[in-house]
Structure formats: structure tokens, C-alpha cells
Design brief:
Pfam families: LD_cluster3
Strand order of the largest sheet: 4-3-2-1-5-6
InterPro entries: LD_cluster3
Helix content: 25-40%
Largest sheet: 6 strands, parallel
Number of helices: 6
Number of domains: 1
CATH architecture: 3-Layer(aba) Sandwich
Distance between the termini: 6 Å
Length: about 200
């Protein structure tokens, strides 16, 4: 089975950490660029977030995709009463049982998400402290996977260690040319058909 793409992304919430250093529009453009290239061509795995799930759903609809076949979303039951309505458009939603504390519930969800799947690459965009936590867990669970840190969107991702040895790729992480950045790492043919298969 082809390895998946792990996406760790969010738009920081107003008043929370990293909000003042983020660029919400750039975060959205980066996520949309990834979806334009990869959705329907390689499996995408992420923890459901109200700022990201609707974008993935909208992209799947606009591409005429059966998103059930190309996306796996993990959610903690702790947030069951706050799940985005768009969740109903995805069949592969993995609900992880909640713990007594919020932080333990999120940790359980992340562990399941990173242990259940094999990843070719992890992509980090924007976000708050959770991005840093997911980055550290991802590097531990998938040490051989490639990592893309989209620094131009700001947020917690801009604080992650440099992951690229190639200066040209480092420049792309900072540049805002998201499509070229993803294409250079993922190696997906942007002209290939959007029919996902295992």
C-alpha cells in the first residue's frame, strides 16, 4: 500500500498563542495548494480541525472526488458536540475515545493517528502549540519520512527546526510558492488523473 501524507495544519485562534505571528490567508493558500496537487492522488491523513476540514471537503467537491477514498480524518470524542458539519461528507472518520482530561484526549487521538498509518511525508502549516507536539511525535514515529515545514504561513510552524538540506527547498519553504514546494518534495504529477486507489 502506498504511504500516506500526514497534514498538521490550522489557523491559530484569535487571542491564542501564535495568532499574532500567523498569516491566515497564507495558511489557507498553502493548504489549498496541497489539495490542488495531492487530493485524489495520494491518501491524506489529518486530525479534524474546524479551520481545515471544510477546506478539504470543499476541494473534494470541486474536484468531483469521492473523498471517502482519499482522506482519513481522526477526531477525539472529547469534541463530539463540536465536530464540523462537513464531517458528514467523509466516510473514513476515526473517532478516538475520550479521556477524562482534554490534553490526554488529544494525545490519545494523535498517537492513534500516527501509529495506525505509514507516512511518506509530514506537512506542517500554521498552527499553535499542537503543531509542535505533532511534529515531535511524527519525527519519533516516522523518522524516515520527509518533512515540509511551510514557514511562510507563520504560526507555530515557523518555529520548527529546519528540515531541508537543499537550499533551494529551504527557500521555497519561506517563499510562499507553495505549489512548487509541495511538487518538489512529493513528486506527484499535477496532470495525472484524480482517481485514488489503494
Amino acid at each position: 500500500m502506498k504511504k500516506s501524507i500526514f497534514l498538521s495544519a490550522s489557523v491559530p485562534t484569535y487571542g491564542r498563542e501564535f495568532f499574532d505571528s500567523c498569516h491566515p490567508y497564507q495558511i489557507q493558500i498553502a493548504v489549498r495548494s496541497l489539495l490542488l496537487l495531492a487530493l485524489g492522488r495520494q491518501r491524506l491523513v489529518f486530525g479534524g480541525h474546524p479551520s481545515i476540514t471544510p477546506m478539504v471537503y470543499a476541494a473534494g467537491r470541486s474536484f468531483g472526488l469521492n473523498t471517502i477514498e482519499c482522506v482519513t480524518i481522526y477526531q477525539s470524542a472529547f469534541f463530539e458536540d463540536k465536530f464540523p458539519l462537513e464531517n458528514q461528507g467523509f466516510a473514513d472518520i476515526r473517532i478516538v475515545a475520550k479521556e477524562e482530561e482534554l490534553k490526554d484526549s488529544i494525545l490519545s487521538m494523535r498517537r492513534r493517528m500516527l501509529e495506525d498509518n505509514e507516512f511518506a511525508v509530514g506537512i506542517f502549516i500554521g498552527g499553535m502549540k499542537g503543531i509542535i507536539d505533532e511534529y515531535e511525535m511524527f519525527r519519533e514515529k516516522s523518522p524516515d519520512a520527509k518533512v515540509i515545514a511551510v514557514r511562510a504561513g507563520g504560526g507555530a510552524t515557523a518555529t520548527l527546526p529546519c528540515t531541508q538540506s537543499d537550499p533551494a527547498i529551504q527557500a521555497l519553504e519561506e517563499s510562499g510558492d507553495y505549489f512548487s514546494l509541495f511538487n518538489s518534495i512529493l513528486g506527484i504529477d499535477p496532470n495525472s488523473e484524480r482517481i485514488f486507489s489503494n
